[in-house]
Amino acid sequence: MKKTFTQSGIALCVMLALSACNQDSQSSNTQNPAAENQNSVATKKLDVAKFLADVEKEQVALNLENSRANWIYANFITDDTAALAAAADQKSTEAGVRFAMEAAKFDNIDVTADQRRKLNTLKQSLVMPAPQDPAKSAELAKIGSQLGGMYGKGKYTNKDGETLSLGDMTATIATSRDYDELLELWQGWRTISPEMKPLFTRQAELANEGAQGLGYKDLGAMWRSNYDMPADDFAKELDRLWGQVKPLYDDLHCYVRSELADTYGEDKVPLDQPIPAHLLGNMWAQSWGNIYDLVAPEDADPGYDVTEQLEKNGYDEIKMVKGAEAFFTSLGFEPLPETFWQRSLFTKPEDRDVVCHASAWDLDAKDDIRIKMCIQKTGEEFNVIHHELGHNFYQRAYKNQPVYYQNSANDGFHEAIGDTIALSVTPKYLKEIGLIDTIPDESKDIGLLMKMALEKVAFIPFGLMVDQWRWKVYSGEITPENYNKAWWELREKYQGVAAPVDRPADAFDPGAKYHVPGGVPYSRYFLAHIQQFEFHKALCEISGNTDPIHRCSIYNSKEAGKALNTMLEMGSSQPWQKAYKVLTGNEQMNATAVLDYFAPLQTWLKEKNQGKQCGF
């Protein structure tokens, strides 16, 4: 869990009253307006230092209070703890709105570069900025709550009369190979979202007004302004990165479509059309790992099963975490504090409900770091633990930064760092720690790379198009009557994935993806899927690795650990390009590292696609 300043619907009565007072003062003192203006500017220059210092003190206290309340709720789920967490969230949210609006008052004042960065951090940390109108602000808060409730309570009653949750449906879509069953569930989940459309439309109007009150063209421009470059340049940068990785995606898409056609028939999966969205093992067709069994290369078994090896070697939940910690200490990082072991949640309690979703927590911005997981003793969870500790070590690395900068360099970095570490959980690493006896030869790499490509490469265009759609909505380019049509046009353009049936006129399929009704920006996930491979490649080079990049593990490399820590310690204190250069030597992202990693698989895919009709 990372600390952020968030939006709220609180009425900014005090601020509006102060604004009115200032206007009254100006109207009553008109003898020397030029002198008064100079005095006002000088006063604001002094005020900004005091404002930032006061906010920092308040935010440190709010963060601790909020983190503790939410930790208790996640680990002891009751109505009372839910109320306490909600109250803490509301308090932090209202403070975040107040901070942002006050920060905007210094937009036209000449301040230091550090002060400007802190002021921008306060402004840009609002995800859904409220208009400076009490009624509209309250309306926006209510809409956010309503949309979240609609998604969270969403259920579908199937043709057999069974009422299914999203969890039930996603589990079936992951494993079923029945075309009609998959289609029913795919359509069924999307019955929850049409009623969201008018609320989402109004939310966009109100949040746009709030963003404009902070000096941005619209909400999309405000989101894109959070990347240390002009908003329009950021959008172009994402398209440039996608252009670099698209050839690999196209090869994967062509192969997967052909294999699905073999399974379901070309009448169901035409070889010259986008892939029907319900056949890819995921409710949103965003990652395709669940259909690995349908597309796996022949003779792809690496000869070991990490889950079995964990059991054979006596790994319980704590030993799994200790093993992941040893990865970081091998790089030169200090061991986790004793409080980590005392306060983290590693296994699901038998006596109470908890939120089992894996997460990394930083409660006091010092050393009280924890993870919360209901660990399963599987190879997949062993990877997840390495990922979550990546967050924790990042959090601890930037603990000496001011509260404004206690975050990742941009919002893609945190996820990218966790995944970068997980990329080093290779057969070589597993052998070094004694989990396997021999490293499979390179002929087995294709299966391992295929598994990873179905998760990571398949996700990249989806990670791009979600915000592409929202940015066009917020700018007015996509109007409400075209929401769904534009959504599927973008999905076909970027993913080569199509709705399996004609969609109803009132459909609002974007609302079936949590991050849309939840108001969560999505570009961070696209960035993380690009950055992790470049970070991994750079760290492997620093470590002196001579293996192919997909076989490299930085385990035991103090040189790689030192370079990594140098970047992590920066937090968000500098433009992300500076942090990027520390590790990669460049200030511009480069998605060709993805191609380098999957090079053997892409060669194999091109051979398999010989003579096939590719493209969509």
Automatic annotation (TrEMBL):
It comes from the Bacteria. Keywords: Disulfide bond, Glycoprotein, Signal. Residues 1-22 form the signal peptide. The lineage of its organism: Bacteria, Pseudomonadati, Pseudomonadota, Gammaproteobacteria, Alteromonadales. InterPro entries: Peptidase_M2. It holds the Pfam family Peptidase_M2. It comes from Thalassotalea insulae. This is Peptidase M2.
